[in-house]
Design a protein that fits this description.
4-stranded parallel beta sheet; 8 strands; globular
Amino acid sequence: REAGRAISPACMREGAAEALRAAAAAGMPATIVSINWSTDLLKSVLGAADAPINGEEGMFHCNDMEMAEAAEAKGGGLLSTGTIVVNIRGAAGKLELTRRLMGERLAVDGGAGGRKACVFVGDSVTDFRSMVESDIGVLMGGSKSVHAVAQLVGVEVHPLPSSVDTLWRADEEAREQAEEEGRAPPRRIFAGEWPQLGALLDSMR
């Protein structure tokens, strides 16, 4: 936790904390899934950046370090045993979680027309399938690997708009054009940065 607080200023991308606050204000609390970052580390980094942490048990889905009580000679408290508790297994684990969360939201809100959109934000190839299957997939950082995979499997990558109305309108126009041409609607994700995502989430309020 101390490490998280120490590295927070350096590792939090510009606009990320603001985007999380915009999501909370729009009634879309974040769920954070990570292969490489533990729950304790993420909580410390986000807390130090004054990003909203909703306190729900299911907010973080990570591979964590097993902790145990330390001996008094070592200062007491909790220390890692060195064992990793594996909760998310690569891209498949992220996709499984995304599908489950989308299904749960659909059941609670009573149909796709009445629920908030699922926005999946990722920056690596292990996030790709989750980005494609979510309502709005957002690629942060412009990963060349993700762009290459998208091109290989026929997924379009578009600039992230700052308004959800603009995004849905573009989707509708793409579907209508595909129907006119007798082909399947295009699969797409959006590439942008955190300030753009914050503006998009603000438009959902």
